UniProtKB/TrEMBL annotation:
<protein>
    <submittedName>
        <fullName>SusD/RagB family nutrient-binding outer membrane lipoprotein</fullName>
    </submittedName>
</protein>
<dbReference type="InterPro" id="IPR041662">
    <property type="entry name" value="SusD-like_2"/>
</dbReference>
<keyword id="KW-0449">Lipoprotein</keyword>
<dbReference type="Pfam" id="PF12771">
    <property type="entry name" value="SusD-like_2"/>
</dbReference>
<dbReference type="InterPro" id="IPR011990">
    <property type="entry name" value="TPR-like_helical_dom_sf"/>
</dbReference>
Length: 560
């Protein structure tokens, strides 16, 4: 949908204008509900805040969740499940989502209701339901029934996630009904997701409902509701209908993919690629990790779209700038001899570090800013890896969208529902279609960026190998294949991966205490939820005490 590319600069200008409006809150009778901001300005502001706070930059929820799900690694307390309520990766997304996006979205709901602007109202209700569902999935209890009622109530209580979810499903029905109403209002390019296309918004709503029913299927009988949705069959049904935020190329104001801006500035990448994730895709097992990759015995052709090696091929003549933990080898700075580190990586430029190695890795003090493998074209807009190497220096494709809810995810959800007998359908066929859709998404981004596409032969060789393993597995093994392939497809969108793992136990995750590495030691248990932001707890006397994120009390209500 090319209109997103053309209008994104204007949208960022709108966001800047809104920020200026909020500098003059004293002119409004109700500071939390400025009356002089139009729906046309509020809508793109909310959407940009949503996408940014859910994405893979340091201020996005996909940042920590992608490290928890062992796709990214960082030299920080994320390395060992140690995120706290004071961390920016917890506080910033909450601030943007709750204090800004949802507050502005509530203004849209109020103004659209008063003006009978039904398309705006339906879109705002759909975004509210979707955003709150993610907050419940990550934090558990959150302010909902008393939220955004300033100045009458500045200290909202935290509602239980179990009580919020049914209200979100009802809200989605209301959103759909409003989008179907006749209206004198028309939404255009200010809608950065769908350009005002209400039919696509209804497909999104149905897809969100299916997702939420799937997430609660272990604790509620949702068969009738799911069957009704499956029968209606009006979901996101192609890559062109994906719910995502597309970006642009402008630097002033900067409308590039925020993850690209963060990770592709020369020598400043925050994240390494998890060796575990790489080895699953490369069909390697060099350090005794869960062996899903070995079960299918084929290399994933998406690797050069996912990972970009700044060194084309590590060798004695082309060595990382410092001693490295995970690479083929490096020049020892003391002896000037080439030290072979991981022989199985010969012929590659992979350079990374291990999870669970913070402060104990013998190479801890060495940076690899100009050598490390970085997230590539598919997740963030970096370059396609053509094997030639080269420093990451804003030479990629910053327009790459932040994926939120995609066609391939809908198909994976359906495959899980069919396999679990929550709905009637062919799980294997739908699983195949989900994998094909995930490859099609990579090719869509590659083609737009002018990169080579994955051939049908390469795609089918991989998918057929996975399906052969799927056919040989029992139901638990089949679920593992579905969830592992969804995990691989979702690189760059960590939020749902984290939820999926807590629901199903798949994919299997790397454990630093069971590998053959002496410098990877897991000291903490996997967290069942995010901690609440410390700043929010400090100012709200009705907020609960901080949770112990590894305790049973922290488990989301949909965990069995």
């Amino acid at each position: 949908m090319s209109f997103r590319f053309h209008k994104i600069i204007a949208a960022f200008a709108c966001l800047t204008l809104l920020s200026c409006e909020k500098d003059f809150l004293d002119i409004n009778d109700d500071p939390s509900n400025p009356l002089d901001v139009s729906l046309e300005l509020l809508l793109p502001s909310v959407q940009l805040d949503m996408a940014g706070s859910l994405g893979t930059s340091t201020a996005g929820l996909s940042q920590i969740t992608s490290t928890y799900m062992h796709q990214l690694v960082q030299r920080s307390n994320q390395n060992d499940y140690g995120v706290q309520g004071t961390d920016s990766g917890v506080q910033s997304p909450w601030l943007v989502l709750y204090t800004r996006a949802l507050a502005d979205n509530e203004n849209i709901i109020k103004k659209a209701t008063e003006q009978e602007a039904w398309p705006y109202l339906g879109m705002a209700q759909a975004m509210k339901a979707y955003t709150y569902s993610i907050m419940v999935d990550l934090w558990g209890d959150v302010p909902y029934s008393e939220a955004h009622q300033a100045p009458q109530n500045l200290l909202p209580k935290y509602d239980q996630g179990e009580a919020i979810y049914p209200q979100l499903l009802t809200l989605l029905d209301e959103a759909k009904a409003n989008l179907e109403k006749e209206s004198i209002f028309e939404v255009g390019d200010e809608d950065l997701f769908y350009g005002g296309d209400t039919d696509l918004w209804i497909k999104f709503i149905n897809s969100v409902k299916l997702k939420l029913y799937n997430q609660i299927r272990l604790v509620d009988d949702v068969t009738a509701e799911v069957d009704a949705l499956i029968t209606e069959d009006n979901f996101i049904s192609s890559e062109a209908e994906d719910f995502e935020m597309e970006y642009g190329t402008s630097v002033g104001p900067d409308n590039r993919n925020p993850g690209y801006v963060q990770e592709w500035a020369p020598g400043t990448a925050n994240y390494y690629i998890s060796p575990y994730f790489y080895e699953i895709m490369a069909n390697l097992n060099t350090f005794n990790h869960p062996d899903y990759g070995g079960k299918i015995d084929v290399t994933d052709p998406r690797i050069p779209y996912y990972f970009y090696n700044q060194i084309g091929e590590v060798s004695q003549s082309s060595s990382p700038e410092n001693p490295c933990s995970y690479c083929y080898g490096y020049i020892d700075p003391n002896t000037e001899e080439f030290v072979i580190k991981v022989p199985a990586l010969q012929g590659t430029g992979m350079v990374s570090v291990f999870a669970f190695s913070l402060n104990i890795d013998p190479n801890e003090g060495y940076g690899q800013g100009s050598s490390q493998t970085v997230a590539g074209l598919y997740p963030l807009g970096g370059k396609y890896d053509d094997g030639e190497g080269g420093t990451s220096n804003f030479n990629g494709y910053p327009q790459t969208p932040q994926r939120l809810l995609n066609y391939y995810a809908v198909k994976f959800i359906q495959a899980e529902l069919f396999l679990s007998n929550t709905a009637t359908g062919d799980a294997r066929l739908t699983f195949r279609d989900a994998m094909r859709a995930s490859f099609a998404k990579v090719n869509e981004i590659a083609e737009t960026a002018g990169a080579p596409v994955i051939t049908t032969t390469a795609r089918d060789n991989y998918i057929n190998a996975v399906l052969a393993a799927y056919d040989a597995a029992d139901d638990a093994g089949k679920l593992e294949h579905i969830m592992t392939q969804k995990w691989i497809a979702s690189f760059g969108w960590g939020v749902d991966m984290y939820t999926d793992f807590r629901r199903t136990g798949f994919p299997l995750l790397f454990d630093g205490n069971t590998d053959n590495l002496s410098f990877t030691i897991r000291t903490k248990e996997f967290p069942f939820a995010y901690p609440w932001p410390t700043n929010n707890l400090a100012v709200n006397s009705n907020a609960p005490a901080q949770k112990v994120v590894t305790s049973n009390e922290a488990k989301p209500f949909w965990m069995k």
